[in-house]
Specification:
Elements (H helix, E strand, L loop, with lengths): L4 E6 L4 H13 L3 E7 L15 E3 L2 H5 L6 E4 L6 H10 L3 E5 L6 H14 L3 E4 L6 H12 L5 E9 L17 H14 L6 E10 L5 E10 L4 E7 L5 E8 L3 E5 L10 E5 L5 E5 L5 H14 L8 H21 L4
Helix pairs in contact: 1-7, 3-4, 4-8
Length: 326
């Protein structure tokens, strides 16, 4: 049996690390937690999930020769410098979304990891839930007919004191939520994006608190999304075909109980496609471990992340030219 991958976590006190990824590493038979690090909280004041080493310095963790892979749940502005530093230390990297602040920054990260011979994957969890995989299969089957339009919405009220409201830390709705909205839209049709439009509402601090976009594809179908730090909690994805409409609720942070895809046909008839549930964070960790030990291809590659960030760059430029400052 292949030895479990030895993991370290930078910024181990982050909410996503504590609630999702550290428990996943702890549960996985493919993973072994050997070190955590926090530069803001003493090791006795947070859950280390039994890690034998709890460091107060990220550099000290990277000096630990036992660590093979590092998970980075730090704020967006720290993704690039610490990914590059991990690569220099010979560590594989699972970096929290969104991978980078810009496509240019992502290219530097990808080049550093390639030069060091280490893997880099963005911790974008949605593709690792069976419902997302079932939706891909449904699209490939042609049951929806010719795709006409797709839309995605993700809004969640974020406390203005949160670091995601701070521009210097890579805050904003697009960088925090946009990957969930845009990635599934890119997988719906065939061919590249031909046209784009975007608008935003910005805070006094300069972040986008709401970001909306429209995309036109060369095959003729269109797509739209809205991501926002305002309004009630909402996660939804809808794909409109000539034969069926597919709707998914709780689309972007699904858990074991989120198993249904609603299908609407002609004359208003409704049916439900139900799949198995899972812990997508556990599935993501195990997939990354398999890529390291079995050389399995990454389901969400760094080139996928780069494509998305290039679109983000274009959309932000369009929104800035349009205006919409609050």
């Amino acid at each position: 049996m292949t030895e479990p991958v030895a993991w370290g976590v930078l910024g181990a006190t982050s909410r996503i690390a504590q609630k999702a990824v550290l428990p996943a590493i702890d549960l996985s038979s493919r993973a072994r937690l050997v070190a955590v690090a926090s530069e803001s909280t003493a090791s006795g004041d947070y859950n280390t999930f039994g890690a034998p080493n709890a460091y107060d310095s990220y550099e000290t963790l990277l000096d630990d020769d036992e660590v093979m892979a590092v998970y980075i749940p730090l704020p967006n502005n720290l993704h690039a410098p610490w990914t590059i530093r991990c690569a220099q230390a010979g560590k594989h990297v699972l970096c929290e979304k969104t991978l980078a602040l810009s496509a240019a920054e992502a290219e530097e990260m990808i080049e550093a990891c390639a030069s060091a011979g280490v893997e880099l994957m963005e911790a974008y969890v949605s593709p690792f839930h069976p419902r997302a995989q079932a939706l891909d299969e449904l699209l490939a089957s042609g049951r929806l007919g010719r795709i006409q339009h797709a839309r995605s919405n993700f809004s969640v009220p974020i406390d203005p004191r949160d670091h995601r409201w701070r521009p210097e830390m890579g805050g904003g709705a697009l960088l925090d939520l946009g990957i969930y909205c845009l990635s599934p839209l890119l997988s719906v049709g065939s061919g590249p994006v031909a046209d784009l439009a975007a608008s935003r509402v910005t805070s006094e601090s300069g972040i986008d608190i709401s970001f909306a976009a429209w995309l036109g594809f060369v095959d003729g179908h269109s797509a739209a999304f809205l991501c926002s730090f305002e309004g009630p909690f909402l996660q939804e994805l809808e794909i409109v075909g000539t034969e069926l409409i597919a709707r998914v609720g709780q689309a972007y942070s699904p858990g074991p109980d989120d198993k249904k895809i609603e299908l609407l046909g002609h004359d208003g008839d409704r049916s439900v496609l139900e799949v198995e549930g899972n812990d997508p964070y556990l599935a993501m960790v195990e997939h990354f471990c398999a890529a390291l030990t079995d050389e399995a291809p990454l389901r969400h590659s760094s080139s996928d992340s780069l494509e998305l960030l290039r679109l983000f760059d274009r959309l932000r430029d369009l929104a800035a030219r349009r205006g919409g400052e609050g």
